[in-house]
Write a structure and sequence with these properties.
Layout lengths: L1 H6 L6 H10 L5 H14 L8 H35 L7
């Protein structure tokens, strides 16, 4: 990313800089293409969700999934124990 930023103005376009830089370590240019954009978002130079924001969303989605699982388990357990205490509770 730093190389693309530093050498961008030596080339006619950002893509030309990416192609030039990517061939040196044997990378595919497409692989390197997204990194400068992500870097610009992370430093507030471009609109979008930062890497930290994406990480927070993933963590919250995992936590949400875990909470849904716990809710389902607790619901099933409460129905089970309600049936054990009161046999008139209908089965599902």
């Amino acid at each position: 990313m730093r190389l693309v930023r530093e050498h961008r103005f030596e080339h006619p376009s950002e893509w030309a800089a990416i192609e030039s830089i990517a061939e040196k370590p044997g990378m595919m240019p497409e692989m390197l293409r997204k990194w400068p954009r992500r870097d610009a978002v992370n430093y507030g130079q471009r609109l979008g969700m930062t890497s930290r924001g994406r990480e927070c969303v993933r963590e919250l989605e995992r936590e949400n999934w875990g909470l849904r699982q716990a809710t389902d388990i607790l619901t099933a357990a409460s129905v089970f124990f309600a049936r054990e205490v009161d046999r008139s509770v209908p089965k599902r």
